[in-house]
Amino acid sequence: MNTPEQSQLGKSSAYVDQYDASLLFPIPRAGKRAEIGISGAAPFFGADMWTAFELSWLNLRGKPQVALAHFTIPAETPNIIESKSFKLYLNSFNNTRFADASEVLARLRTDIAEAAWRGGPVQSVGVRLIAAEQFDREPVYELDGLSLDRLDVECTHYQPAPELLVTVPAAEGMVTEVLVSNLLKSNCLVTGQPDWGSVQISYTGLQIQQEGLLQYLVSFRNHNEFHEQCVERIFMDIWARCKPAKLTVYARYTRRGGLDINPLRTSHPQALPGNTRTARQ
């Protein structure tokens, strides 16, 4: 079983520029999920949506080619892929010759599916390449919703404090709201380096007290955990303490090493949003 400490995070790494699928380092989801009360099947659906901004390879004549890549890794895969290993893997394409983009796409799909589903039956992952002539079609949008950041609140917790999550009196009735914040920050589980993100919380249920929700999101500021794990912790804390009928938590983290990670977890099946970057990404 791979652990984060066994990965290349925080270590000096050799630069490999010839294709090498073995560089991908999967880490089981089960351990961190157990910490937040998940044993067996998780009470959510969703996916981890990645964008690779630094993807290049050589054509058969040795001329460099470039593309963007969108990856969609289902939340039910047994593993996350450690981000530095993902970067090293993508770098291994740099001086490798491929017949065309379709060959690159096939390699990406096969390798990432094998790593993400390792330990269980291998199923598919989503991979889409954006060619250079399509770059200007890539839009920039901010997350929709009512901004929590407008609230003038005092913040004193910088480790996750789920006790801050409360609902307003039941007499207020059920509501459907979409709330957003740009104040999400956590740190890498291994290196402690900062991870910056924006988060969107959509729910139907008793109204969540917005001041407490913002203070709760800020409480992740000194917390060490991977992006995917933070989003699942946020989902489970709101789910347990506020008991909404429906809940979706979606975060978009700024890129590091040419990669961004954008996890979404939802209580009910729904179409995934387009993997559209925000201005900070």
Low-confidence stretches: none
Query: Whole-Å distance between the termini?
Result: 32 Å
Taken together, the total number of domains comes to 2
CATH fold-type name of the largest domain: GTP Cyclohydrolase I, domain 2
Largest sheet: 8 strands, mixed
Radius of gyration: 19 Å
Overall average pLDDT: 94
Number of helices: 5
**Total number of beta strands:** 10
Secondary-structure element order, N to C: EHEEEHHEEEEHHEE
CATH architecture assignment name of the largest domain: 2-Layer Sandwich
**The CATH fourth-level homologous superfamily of the largest domain:** GTP cyclohydrolase I, C-terminal domain/NADPH-dependent 7-cyano-7-deazaguanine reductase, N-terminal domain
Family: Belongs to the GTP cyclohydrolase I family. QueF type 2 subfamily.
Function: Catalyzes the NADPH-dependent reduction of 7-cyano-7-deazaguanine (preQ0) to 7-aminomethyl-7-deazaguanine (preQ1).
Binding site for NADPH: 83-84, 256-257
Enzyme class: oxidoreductase
